[in-house]
Amino acid sequence: MGPALCLLSAACFGAMAIFGKLAYAAGVSPGALLLVRFALSAVLLGMLLLLRPGLRRDPVIPDRTAATRSTPAVLVTALGLGVVGYAAQAGLYFSALELMDASLLSLVFYTYPLLVTLAAALLGRDRLTPGRCAALVVASCGTLLVLLGTGEVTFHPLGAALAFGAAATYTVYILVADTVVHRLPPVMLAALVMTGAALTMAVRALVTDGTDLVFGWQGWFWLACIAVVSTVLAMLTFFAGLRRTGPSTAAILSTFEPVVTTALAALTLGEILSPVQWAGGLLVLSSVAVLQLRRKRPGRHGDVPRREPNRADTPSPKQSVTVS
Asked: What would the 3-class secondary structure string for the chain be?
């Protein structure tokens, strides 16, 4: 289930750039997009927690020990992930989306799996195995082919800087979130993150003399799609998948996101995929399959089984999502 949840999350996040472009075309500003996205997502997740009390308990670890039980510090950390990390990452991402092509934005932003993998290894939270390195290289090469297959992209220095800033911010967000993702139920964690991000956007709107929310129903429709599909569903599946895979694997599986973005752009915006882009998509999917085959391969005769640490007992470093 871990890999499947990560892939579903990547598909939901992959649709966000398309929804964002359509929202911009409908007259929605970046500030309004972020405020409505986070506020609506926080309300939806809060309602889900009220209607389904069982979601407030961890279904994986029903009997928590004192070391793993939710504490005020954990709750504050989760809220801070939204106030600082997710709000900053999303702000940088959608600001870059105004300035550059969605495909090139995805290319620059998707340096984050490499950053996550290297940072997790340096922090001792994950192992940088040869198979994992190979999967990351293959997936990155496939993503490069998908995004640059046509060769018809324009480079915007400020947009690229904002996109890389979003990647770096998301890396930190993922690594910090992984320290609490095993200590809070996924829905509660997502609700806290969205609430924190909504508070940040609300304060920003007050400081900047408000946010224009006057636009047509088309704008509200695309904002609803961003909130429901590319935020609530994407975050819940990412948190749930991360709990089962760890930071590096979750980041590698998330390279499926730009493949979805490119495919949806072809279907909705009339962009035609080239043979090179199709080849890149196959490389990404193949790397995911190879990675999972390596994870399930039994050890050689005589190998001593390595006990994986209990993620409920030892918090590991990573979360969203997101990339987005």
From this structure: CHHHHHHHHHHHHHCHHHHHHHHHHCCCCHHHHHHHHHHHHHHHHHHHHHHCHHHHCCCCCCCCCCCCCCCHHHHHHHHHHHHHHHHHHHHHHHHHHHHCCHHHHHHHHCCHHHHHHHHHHHCCCCCCCHHHHHHHHHHHHHHHHHHHCCCCCCCCHHHHHHHHHHHHHHHHHHHHHCCCCCCCCHHHHHHHHHHHHHHHHHHHHHHCCCCCCCCCHHHHHHHHHHHHHHHHHHHHHHHHHHHHHCHHHHHHHCCHHHHHHHHHHHHHCCCCCCHHHHHHHHHHHHHHHHHHHHHHCCCCCCCCCCCCCCCCCCCCCCCCCCCC
